[in-house]
Design brief:
Elements: H1 10-65
């Protein structure tokens, strides 16, 4: 009466699941890097614009002093 219980081979499951999880992780990282770079580009442009305004104001104030 005590035959072998049905055993599941987890290596087959690992072979199928690991690539899916791996590529999902890579896709997630790529999406986050793209979002970060877009946000950084926007912030850099704003900072450059503010620096240009400060330089312009500094030049104007120097011209008025002379």
């Amino acid at each position: 009466m005590g035959g072998n219980p049905i055993q599941f081979d987890y290596t087959a499951l690992f072979i199928f699941i690991f690539p899916i999880v791996f590529f999902a992780l890579i896709a997630y990282l790529i999406v986050n890097v793209v979002r970060y770079l877009k946000r950084k580009d926007k912030n850099d442009k704003e900072m450059i614009q503010k620096m240009d305004e400060l330089i312009k104001l500094h030049r104007q104030s120097n011209n008025h002093l002379q």
